[in-house]
Amino acid sequence: MWNRARVTTGSLQALAALNRLSRRYQIDKIQRLSANFERACWRSVRCAEEAAYHRKYDFLRHCVNVINYRKSQPKTRVVPLSDFASTLAAKYNGDNADQLKTEAILKIKTIKSQLPKCIRDVDTDQLTTDEIVDMCRKDDLSTESIENAICSLVEISNIQRLLKRVDEARRKDISDPPYSRVRLEAMAQRGLTTAYN
Questions:
Q1: Taxonomically, which superkingdom (predicted)?
Q2: Does 127 reside within a domain?
């Protein structure tokens, strides 16, 4: 249709020819109808695309904040995790489980008291890291305090995992399985070693 409007002389004549053709084929009505149709039908698609764009933008902004924070302080690239769980595990000898349990519970309480208010009273076991970061961002916390909070939550989960292992070890009452001399010699010949959980 539009290739009929071949005008070689000037732009005004080309516009006049296009105007004549558009009136003949009622292009303006079709354009108005298609604009209304698009507005009604594609609204949900457009809203979903905009929401996805905003989510990506928020995530990228968080990444840029983290990168800038770590660039400004190159010696503290990651908040150092305290090794409290491994020191407790090294102290465990089978008889002092109750003492280690009380020590671990006290440590968990002190860590939870230092957490920000937005995640102190929430059950963070059911939340992902992104949800925790979103909750902290709503309270306008800095990137450094968010990293500290997440590292504290990781430390709490490590201590709780250690407590579960200690309880399982107490329940099972682990002892070395009795091996006969023949079985031990066969294991030594094959080069097998036993691994205890």
A1: Eukaryota
A2: yes
Of 167, 153, 161, which is closest to residue 125 (Cα–Cα)? 153
Tell me the C-alpha distance between 96 and 26, whole Å: 90
Which helix or strand (DSSP H or E) is residue 126 part of? none
Q: Are residues 155 and 96 in the same domain?
A: yes
Tens of pLDDT along 10-59?
Answer: 667 767 777 777 778 877 777 666 666 666 667 677 778 888 888 888 88
- The answer to whether residues 51 and 66 belong to one domain is yes
**Count H helices, E strands: the chain?**
9, 0
> What is the torsional sign of CA 18, 19, 20, 23?
positive
Q: How far apart are CA 18 and CA 7, in angstroms?
A: 10
Are the C-beta atoms of 116 and 139 separated by less than 8 Å? yes
* Total-model pTM: 0.46
Collapse the DSSP code of 89 into the 3-class scheme (helix H, G, I; strand E, B; otherwise coil) and give the result: helix
Q: Confirm if 100 and 91 have CB atoms less than 8 A apart.
A: yes
Counting other chains too, the contacts that 121-129 makes at CB distance below 8 Å and 24 or more residues apart are 124/153, 125/157
